[in-house]
Design a protein that fits this description.
Helix content is 92%, strand content 0%. It has 66 residues and is an all-alpha fold.
């Protein structure tokens, strides 16, 4: 699974945890959910950057071969 996909999953987990925290009045769970969402977003963005870097690298290698 790509880092981008893992980031999306972590964001979804965080949203669920935040909602559960709100529903139960558990401030700590709600805060953990928000933290998980931020971590997931960072992971997703890092995954996108990694994919883009690999694409650039591949493109440069293709130009060298030509």
């Amino acid at each position: 699974m790509s880092e981008k996909a893992k980031g999306k999953m972590e964001q979804l987990k965080g949203k669920a945890k935040e909602a559960a925290g709100k529903a139960t009045g558990n401030d700590r769970m709600q805060a953990e959910g928000k933290t998980d969402q931020v971590k997931g977003k960072v992971r997703e963005v890092a995954g996108k950057a990694d994919e883009k870097a690999r694409g650039v690298k591949d493109s440069l290698q293709d130009r060298r071969r030509s």
